[in-house]
Amino acid sequence: MKSSSSATDSESVVISSREHALIDTCSLVLSAKNINHQIRQDHQATIQIICAPEIAGRARYQLDRYFEENRNWPPPQPLVRHPSFPALLPTLVLIGVWPSFSRSPVPGGRDLTGLKQGQTTLAQCLRAGNGIGSSLR
Hints:
Layout: E1 2-4, E2 12-17, H1 20-32, E3 38-41, E4 47-51, H2 53-69, H3 84-103, H4 113-116, H5 122-127, H6 132-136
Antiparallel strand pairs: 1-2, 2-4, 3-4
């Protein structure tokens, strides 16, 4: 951000730059603070914001405040880690262990292997004498 006094006695240069985005932002800040100003471009493609000398100090102060307040804006994005392996490990363990529990029933427990052998309902398993059905007869 450059300031200079190369304007006439009836106007003061508040800021000059070749960056259009910077000048647009500064003009927006000054407009928001109701500071009258003009934008001028010289023959060397330098763009200037000009205002009356009696309000130039206020204009520079407002721009300094704006740039100070927005110095570290936007904040850096936090690094997001996706827990692919830690979440995957318990799932794979369960997938590997679950079939062994269903094939070897606990003593006195229900044997549901008949469901895997084509008996489609629990009632058919119970009628066949598997599990709790045989103890009820």
